[in-house]
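Q: Can I see a sequence and its folded structure?
A: Here is a first one.
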Amino acid sequence: MNRRNAIRITALLFVLILALTGCGQGGQPSSSSGGAASAEKTIWEKIGEAGKITVGNSPDYEPFEFEDGQGNVIGFDIDLLDLICKELGISYELVNISFENIETAVQTGQVDIGMSCFSITPERQLTFDFSTPYLSSGQALVVNPDSGYTKIEDLHGKTITAGMGTSGMEAAEENIPGANVVGMDNYALAFMQLKSKGCDAAVADLPVARNYAAKDGFIVLDEILSYEDNAILIKKGNDDLVQALDVAIRTLKENGKIDELIDKWLIVD
């Protein structure tokens, strides 16, 4: 290697070192700003951009969510959802999903939230977050008037129907020894089974139980299987969405709007 070539190589190495140093100093903010720009938006941020929230709902649970015969989904939850969205300044889109599949739809991002009279349970809390509760209720047993059943003990070892994947099904399994608890695709089928005496009892949230009793002449047992709070189902890690929903629900509690919905839709003793 001659002297001239050595000088050229030295110069090239010096330029290369400067370039690498410059990349190290100037690249960090660039990488940081690029990372911020490319960071995935939260569900709440996406909702804000779209101006709309998608909601998984199973309209087979009168009076919370059901079809009115003209293709419209109505009920307590639907009216409440409408009020919540007005508080948040957004619209909503209902996505009809069987109840047992709503959790998967929320988890995979098919919908933004689940709102279908979800009870807060320890099992669900392992995977999901919940809004502040908007209603407190309980799981009740419904029987035919000529059944002779008057208390939970009478149903030990009997056949009980409930909605598939519901907390009512879980409550029956845990609190009625020896019961054959049959999960149905929807609650209309569960109560059809009861009416045709294909089962001994059906279990549902107390307002739903009272609604079916009023319509079809069933009897609601006085003993409650479990007491629960109802809330909106949210994928974990979306604190900003939880907070926005909580503020809206608290406002509707404080201004009496939720009480108005209770008077409108729910049969209260």
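Q: Show me another, different protein.
A: A second, unrelated one:
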Amino acid sequence: MTLMTNGLESGVPKNRPNPWRVITVFLLPGDARVKLSRRYPNALLRCRRDRRRISGCRDEATPNPFGGIYVNQESGKPAWASLAGPRRLPRHPDRSWQVLARVLLADFTLLGNHASQLAMGEETELRIVLGDLCPLPEVLGLLRHFFKGCPETRLHLYFEAISGPWERLFDNEADLIVHHIDKADPRLEFIDLFADTLLPVVAPNFLPFPISKGITPEQMRGHVQCVIRDTALRWPAHDYYLIEGARTWTVSDQQMKKEIILQGMGWGHMPGFMIADELRDGRLLSIAGKHLRGGGGEIVAARRRDAPHGPVANRLWSFIAAQAPALSSTVKRRSPRRH
């Protein structure tokens, strides 16, 4: 990271000494240097008096954290420069300076994001990803109500499954996702929306043996298990509740999965709010028990904490936070009662 002024910027003639010239570069660990050189491939830190050297080193034997670096445009690697001539960065710089450099670079990134946010006007578009466990009628109704007041902002809606929402968010292809997340991830901020159960269900007469709470995975291995395809392109695939060795059919979304199960073509885990009516009237039967326990999921609205957000995105964030209790109550009423 460099802070510098030169003679022309400060009003000092080019051929006169410039008391205000400041070149401050901290020693960076290898990963930070690579990121810097990749982001600014043509960067070259240099003095106007001597374009090949940068003052600031004490001597050759003592690494000076307030020296200078330049980025070699051919190799893409930074090199050290001093009055005695250029030399490579020390292999083992002081650990305290590494820690300080990381902190300062993080603060510098946050400052840049804040400046970008201040420069933003009303966004012309927002990108929102709905995950495969999202209750579409309720969430779409919430978005419809909000975007009535934002006619100049175009909404881009995407549907992704399993790891797809996370991949889009971390690839900067989404401003907000509605999905389950790792709440311990410090890169994210989130608003809790609702919690729901995932129940293993079958259609009547699908199984050749009586339904009980003692059904085992081994008993289900010979029957087609319907699963959702992970839409992530580069992230490792995640398989939830998959029985090893079972025959599987894959589908793109929960609605298709539900219809396949209703038709007796397979069995699988479904979110409770989607199958409450079918469980009540007997069109679907739960096989959850001590061996097939099902599971639960906490759905949240999440966005990057370390990314700038414009005024429309921030108003949407506040709107979702205000509407979250009502959304949770609605989904809870749709879900089957727990016994």
